[in-house]
Design goal:
By secondary structure, the chain is α+β, with helices and mostly antiparallel strands. It is built from 7 helices and 9 strands.
């Protein structure tokens, strides 16, 4: 059982509707950068909620390249594994942190037994669908500049996006090499479209449409 759950839920709203029986089944786990939380092909045993740190879901090509499917710096990830017989990707820690592990069986029972938790879970999945749609739309755009502007407009606030990761890692999410990203940022800055201040990227024309 995890102590001080009200404090934990206050810091992590996605935990607010976890029913008592599922709380009791949860286990707190620390991880280090570089740790693998699960491998593609393994049978899912737990549902994970990130409390601190960063985890990425990825697949590797035969040539050794990486395709990043999801990054999580907080909240649940790999939600689809609840109904899967095997993981379809690897989960690797990018930055050290902590997570909660909920046994899959207990998680399913909680969803079946409580409307509040079930509704909260459905709302979370709906948000994930919207996020994935935006990412698919972005990856379909041609040109590095178009993807950069789309990311700022769809994920930023008032025309400003503050990166919570390195630009190299962001390039991978955009489906670009880091060299292509740097060149595109330089072009956008030179054209007066974008202002760069460390991790902060701001459109000089907020609200422009692609």
């Amino acid at each position: 059982m995890i102590g001080d759950w009200p404090i934990l839920a206050a810091d992590h709203p996605e935990l607010a509707h976890i029913p008592p029986a599922l709380r009791d089944a949860a286990r707190l786990r620390a991880f280090a950068a570089g740790d693998t939380l699960f491998h593609q092909g393994e049978r899912p045993k737990s549902m994970y909620c990130i409390l601190a740190g960063e985890v990425r879901l990825l697949r590797r090509s035969r040539e050794g390249g990486e395709v990043i499917l999801q990054r999580s710096r907080g909240g649940f990830f790999a939600e689809a594994s609840l109904e899967s017989k095997a993981y379809h990707c690897d989960a690797e820690a990018v930055a050290a942190g902590r997570l909660l592990a909920f046994p899959v069986r207990a998680f399913r029972e909680a969803l079946e037994g409580g409307a509040a938790f079930r509704n909260a879970w459905m709302a979370l999945l709906a948000r994930e669908v919207r996020t994935l749609r935006a990412r698919c739309e972005r990856l379909s755009l041609h040109g590095a500049e178009a993807r950069i502007l789309h990311a700022i407009e769809s994920e930023g606030k008032a025309g400003t996006l503050v990166l919570a990761q390195s630009r190299k890692a962001w390039a991978a999410e955009l489906g670009l090499t880091h060299e292509a990203l740097y060149r595109a940022l330089a072009r956008l800055q030179a054209a007066g479209t974008l202002a760069l201040d460390g991790a902060r990227l701001s459109l000089r024309q907020p609200g422009r449409r692609l």
